[in-house]
Amino acid sequence: MREAVFKTEISLTRYLRADGKPLDELPGWSHEPEPLTSYYRWMVLARQFDQKAVALQRTGQLGTYPSSLGAEAIDVVTGHLMSHEDILVPYYRDHVLQMIRGTPMRDVLLYWGGDERGNAGVGMARDLPNAVPIATQTLHAAGVAASLKYRHQPHAVVCLCGDGATSKGDFAEALNLAGVWHLPLVMIVNNNQWAISVPRHMQCAAPTLAQKALAAGIPAEQVDGNDPIALHEVIGHALQRARAGKGPCLIEALSYRLSDHTTADDASRYRAPDQLKEAWQNDPLRRLRQYLVDLGYWDESRERQCLDEAQQQIQQAVEDYLATPPEPVESMFEYLYAELPEQLRTQIEMARVRGGGDL
Amino acid sequence: MNEPICLLEAVNLALARALDDDPEVILFGEDIGHNGGVFRATDGLAKRFGAHRVVDTPLAENMIAGTAVGMASQGIRAVVEIQFMGFIFPALEQLIAHAARLRHRTRGRLSCPMVLRAPYGGGIHAPEHHSESTEALLAHIPGLRVVIPSSPARAYGLLLGAIRCDDPVIFLEPKRIYRASRTLVEDSGAALPIDRCFTLREGADLSLISYGAMIPECLAAADNLAERGIDSEVIDVASLNPIDYDTLLASVSKTGRAVIVHEAPGKGGVGADISAVLNEQLWGQMRAPVMRVTGLDTVMPYYRNEQHYLPGVSDILDAVDKSLEAGRNEILQATGSG
């Protein structure tokens, strides 16, 4: 005898076409101006910030910076749906998500401008800072979720990573633990189709990345990562499940990296211009703007005002960032241990001298 | 407890005390729950404190370390076990890239009060990959603390100190002496400082500096030397990062001679580091070059040959003789005789 012992399918949720027209009957809430106009405003801010950050890098005023172009909808919707008590474990492209969580824009610039204080004041006190080593944060997220569960706190942990991260053992290990310990973890893969220069089809032979969670006994699905209504539905549901003790899930959000990997990368070396052009047709901002315009919630003057406000906010943050002097040299040692070992004190003086004198 | 206990039982006693004292202490690792750990370090703890506090994990060392970082970031005192040091390598990225840096990179907003325990070292006729001493890899990392006990009392006190410490601590247990000797250890709940050397024997002629399973070898060597009228000081370094150089420098400036003993390979080892600092700080006061007695710079052999790899009392005595000889030549040259 031979019978199927495991059957499943992966669904993809999408409500809006690329041109902003509904594909299907929309959820009731999406006929209201809120939260979608707020989402749109934040997406505009994210895009303007991104442009500014790249410009700062190009003019030598910021270090290497990973653009979030094309990830705006995923980050903005996630940020709005998370509660104050939920805990964020971000990856290094989640700038606007951290801002929505309360991280000052200036701090995001400080971090990418080579200053650890960018991680110091993250809005929510328990959120984790950027993890640069790929996928390592997925395990932290499992641990954070385990702490919530141990303390019987009905909140969720949201962890983000890219498509490349799903090839790492950390990712599989985190999902495996989340499944077996039934952790309140929402794992969101921003599948932007590129891990630096390696395209999605060279990353994994599986037709979806979502299905990797099935091997860990975790429900998983795909969502159109350029569709804020679909993201709201899918992520909102996942958060409610996690907070209610119904366990983890994996969401593969399909997006496209509209930028280079970072400012140190040149995607024209490996990416056909036509593909990028085509991807712009799915731009999440364009889609939501058209939808809001069709409903009468958005127009040219609102757009202009929104851009102006974003520019002002960004300008202020940039001024604050550029006016922030470097940390005193002793900060190199101050936070290394709870209490600085006595024998390291002499090295503070060495650091001062090495830097060309006291600041 | 009024029965003498061994080092392994002292580890168990400290873990039980920590679980009892602080509801935010959680133990997890492979086989540590129902089975009580492959060496029985956690024997009986799951039954006593519950499977939610002494937790069996899936088999993934990287996951154990990374999950501990996540829990510790939220203030849970995660005390995790890696079954053997030979299997610690998947966990290194989490220890080095995250545990060691979390406080630093968040400017103190988050910290990482975790302890990662692992039995280490050779001498028990274990299979391949079960006898390594790679503590120098960890002691090299700023932000990590590395602590090694060498007696039941120090295992108890240092482990409590490690668990209560707000920094990540790698707690390496010399499994060769897990059951080597028994002493009375009072379950007082008192921690020992995890950043200090322990002077186990005072002496004027020579400093024997060591840690872990080499401490009994050094003490035996000191007994032997005493019979020859040589008065050696024996210091258990105990904390490999940070190292308590105050104690080491005070001892060697008194004796003028140092022999450093560890079973890890000499190259890039903790002994090389200590030797360098002694030279930098005490040049001119030394009566002989600093000597090292270490494991050999080769792969840890399978157990049939491990006695040829591990330093023993006679190797220590040979190094002491060279140290004494070096000083004697100097004196002879200075007086123009010989």
TrEMBL record, chain A:
Transmembrane segment boundaries: none
All residue ranges annotated as the Dehydrogenase E1 component domain in the record: 40-323
Coiled coil residues, start to end: none
Catalytic activity: N(6)-[(R)-lipoyl]-L-lysyl-[protein] + pyruvate + H(+) = N(6)-[(R)-S(8)-acetyldihydrolipoyl]-L-lysyl-[protein] + CO2
SUPFAM superfamilies reported in the protein's UniProt record: Thiamin diphosphate-binding fold (THDP-binding)
Key words of the record: Oxidoreductase, Pyruvate, Thiamine pyrophosphate
Requisite cofactors: thiamine diphosphate
Classification via InterPro entries: Alpha-ketoacid_DH_E1_comp, DH_E1, PdhA/BkdA, THDP-binding
The organism's place on the tree of life at top rank: Bacteria
Enzyme Commission (EC) number: 1.2.4.1
Keyword Oxidoreductase belongs to the record: yes
UniProt function note: The pyruvate dehydrogenase complex catalyzes the overall conversion of pyruvate to acetyl-CoA and CO(2). It contains multiple copies of three enzymatic components: pyruvate dehydrogenase (E1), dihydrolipoamide acetyltransferase (E2) and lipoamide dehydrogenase (E3).
Subunit structure: Heterodimer of an alpha and a beta chain.
PANTHER family referenced in this protein's UniProt entry, alphabetically: 2-OXOISOVALERATE DEHYDROGENASE SUBUNIT ALPHA, MITOCHONDRIAL (PTHR43380:SF1)
Protein name: Pyruvate dehydrogenase E1 component subunit alpha
Species: Marinobacterium zhoushanense
Lineage: Bacteria, Pseudomonadati, Pseudomonadota, Gammaproteobacteria, Oceanospirillales
UniProtKB/TrEMBL annotation, chain B:
InterPro entries the record matches: THDP-binding, Transketo_C/PFOR_II, Transketolase-like_Pyr-bd, Transketolase_C
Coiled-coil stretches noted in the UniProt entry, renumbered to this chain: none
Enzyme's top EC category: oxidoreductase
Entry's EC annotation: 1.2.4.4
Cofactor needs: thiamine diphosphate
Keyword field contains Oxidoreductase: yes
Annotated SMART domains: Transket_pyr (SM00861)
Matches recorded under Pfam families: Transket_pyr, Transketolase_C
Domain Transketolase-like pyrimidine-binding: 5-180
Keywords recorded for this protein, A-Z: Oxidoreductase, Pyruvate, Thiamine pyrophosphate
Record protein name field: 3-methyl-2-oxobutanoate dehydrogenase (2-methylpropanoyl-transferring)
